[in-house]
Amino acid sequence: METEEGEQERKPYVVVSNNQRNRALGDCLAVRLTTTRKEAYTTVVPLGPADAPLRGYVLCDEITLLFNDELLEDIGALSHATMTTVATGLKAALGLP
Q1: What keywords is this UniProt entry annotated with (predicted)?
Q2: Which of 13, 27, 78, 89 could form a disulfide with 60 if both were Cys (CB 3.0 to 4.6 A apart)?
Q3: pTM of model > 0.70
Q4: What is the DSSP letter of 9?
């Protein structure tokens, strides 16, 4: 997405692919974070106090491929409990049992 000044707008993502895959392929699979309020749904995971300083919602149905040169900075990690819920959201988004 372009801003009015023509610069890339920075958006936060959660990397959901494993490190071995990421290193081998030079890219990663990620889902977007948003601070826009979202209705409760299996593929929308709210972040809680354990995920600070990150806040908002993980959109598990917005899966994208990011190349290493698109990754600008590590802004933190989600709690184990939240990542477990993200895994459930990914399964729902992909129709997996």
Answers
A1: Hydrolase, Toxin-antitoxin system
A2: 89
A3: yes
A4: P
